[in-house]
## 1
Amino acid sequence: MARYLFKRLLQSIVTLWCVLTVIFLLVRLAGDPAQLMLPVDATRHDVVALNASLGLNHSLGVQYWDYLQSVVQGNFGESLYYKQSVLSLIAERLPATLTLAVVAIVIAIIVGSLMGIVSAIKKDTWIDRLSTSLVFLLQSFPAFFIGILLILIFAVKLHLVPTSGNATPVAILLPAFTLAAYPIAPIARTMRTSLIENMGEKFVLANQAMGFNDVDIVFNRVLKNAMLPVVTVIGLELGTMIGGAVVTETVFSWPGLGQLIIQAVQKRDFPLIQAGVIIISAFYIIINFGVDVLYLYLDPRVKKGGASR
Amino acid sequence: MKHFAWRDGVRLLPFIVVLAIVVIGPLIAPFDPNNQQIKSTLLAPFAHYAGSGRVALLGTDELGRDIFSRILYGGQISLLISVAAVVVSGCIGLVIGLISGYLQKWPDAFFMRLGDVQLSIPSILLAIVIIAVFGSGIVNVIAVLAVTGWVSTARVVRSRVIQLKETDFVAAAELMGLPRRVIIWRHILPNVGSLFITQEILQISRMILFSASLSYLGVGVSLSTITWGGMLNEGQNYLQSAWWLAAIPGLCIAIVVIAINLFGEWLQARLAS
């Protein structure tokens, strides 16, 4: 088990290193980074000055080494637009994004699992069909459109919640539901399939013969086994959710990391874009590692078999 | 093959209708999509234009442009971008999947690790970085979508190829000493075909959603090009007074995606039986 964890940890670190390299190469590939970072009307002199201050006049190898060193030290440089440390800008915005993501994933897990469970217990009835069709619809709507529809109904027409921002606690409801819309569909689908599969086991038949009802059997005996594939799907969906957060934050003017990055793109603030993407990817890698550890706890077979991925 | 029933019709018809409308879209558009009618701004659907008295089927936007015509033009561009992206990413994914699955060893390890790394950068962020570096525009958006799309195709193809390698007919072909090229081309590829095609059909709807998100965020094609995502973005400013500006393009995206997904599922079921 310790060996598996160690191997998985090493894998995560290698992945993170690859991400750092890819982003370094992408930004350098575009030709002259100083030209990219400066406004279009910058003079030759400005370009030379910025090159010197960013160390861009060194060879690519030296630059790469410097870059890795500063990233490891948590030094992401200064934002070109805000003229302040990139890290402090990100730290300011991170709590808003994390709150949104946590509330959204909780909603998605509860709603998605319940839909899947109801579908599985009432398999092939109208309830199952309704729930399956809802899941299908949910997958076909662009997330930002769901957000706009929610604004239209609950903020513009019914005046129940504000249209944007995070000034009041209820303001989180619409963005969280919007962000939850994507993972709900795959969670519900996987839960349904996995439960139905498990319901075919002999011990379930035995329980049914003993007179337990299906709801009791699902919640007390089958659910823990059926959760395994659902946990994997939740892990996979976190990436989509992080991407979705960028869009959702823009729809609702939610002052999080996603909005910061989109604004940075519009202002061509490269140090900020670079740091934002690195930090989000790092979060994603850490979360995936966490999901694998959780898997280890839920499925003892992984412990015995070692790395089964 | 099963008989053709009404259930097939439900899954096929929306796809055919939507495809037909999107393909001939600009031909049936009643107005020039960029023509501004200052006297008829923010008309509701079915309202009449000032002066000419013609009907604005889906209303007009803040500059008095005909939304129905814009939808028709925008649909063609959105579909074109998505299909082009799927063709490119599908080819890359297919080749990598075949190589990885058939050769295994280091090429497999290399490509699959590359895929893992790529997936650990959320695709929308990767797209944003690439567009920030290389600039926006239709070709760049297609390239970005293709880059983010190859991994899933490669993985699906690879796992199918690994299954096929275990079959007797491939083993027989190998024993006969047929060159790899022939085995892949004649024995593996035809058996990957149907799986590959369903996968790519479903990828089209994914790409439509993805490119719409990029346009919505304003990092896709330039704002002067008509896209549904871009229309939604502009329409959001008028939610209070003219909700249809945002609702119509959003619904159109959803309808197209639903039609493609229904078709994809129909194809999947049909090819599997």
## 2
Amino acid sequence: MAISYKPTRMEMSRLKKRLVTATRGHKLMKDKRDETVRRFITYVRRNKELRERVEKLMAEAMQSFVIAKATMSAAAVEEALCYPASAARIGVESTKVLSTEVPRLNYIPTESHGLPYGVLGTSSELDAAVAKFSELMPLLIELAEVEKTCNLLADEIEKTRRRVNALEYVMIPQLKDAIHDISMKLDENERGNLTRLMKTKDMLKEKEG
Amino acid sequence: MADIAMIGDKDSVLLFRAAGLDVYFETDGHAAGKLIDKLAAGNTKVIFITEPVFEAAAQTVSKYRSSAFPAIIPIPDSRGATGAAMRSVRENVEKAIGADILL
């Protein structure tokens, strides 16, 4: 028995209060777990869909890059791309899904439109490849948001499930046992007291009679 | 410094420079791990990382799993998807629900 207690009425009412709290906490945690799982499933479905799409489009974009590299020398490709475009930004917010903080990302494309290199000495295939990659960006950002959310929710679900189980299979049974034990001991004391009184009364009667 | 970074081998990630990402050429897991630490400290929000490097730097990646930022997302490299990213999605599902329901 993990819960130590003294068999008194005070202790029993204290334990009873704890049991009420534990039961209520258990119910809340269970509801939270169920709802998080429900949301997690919708997120993870979208995650899978997005990932499949990204993997397909990425393969296409990589292919067009390979073609671009074939039309130009490796050094020329590197030279064209060595000057970085103006940095892409993302708007970052965070929302809460059942008290788990998850990121919300908005892709803000680079301000400069067009290509970060001149047309001289670069092939149109490279332009096409760059365009494909730029098109891919919003999708990648969405994937990042959804995948991170899935990660965080999965962790949260695991934690919540442990709490639910700890309450259900350890805390609540222990409290119930403790309360039962105390009430048995109190009853036993009560009976002991009663028999003593009866015995004393008998003894007094014998003395008188 | 951009909000988005990209780590991987040169052939796979070079083009993302044109899209305005911070691009780092790194294929070694240990060095990539250090780079991720540096980027995370430098307030980078999203780090895309090619699948082979993602697996090589798994230790560092798992460190940032439970924090909202940076989001470290595996992407296929120039040789196509290895399935490592999909596997991590499935791991999530198994962890949360107890069975792989995506199939």
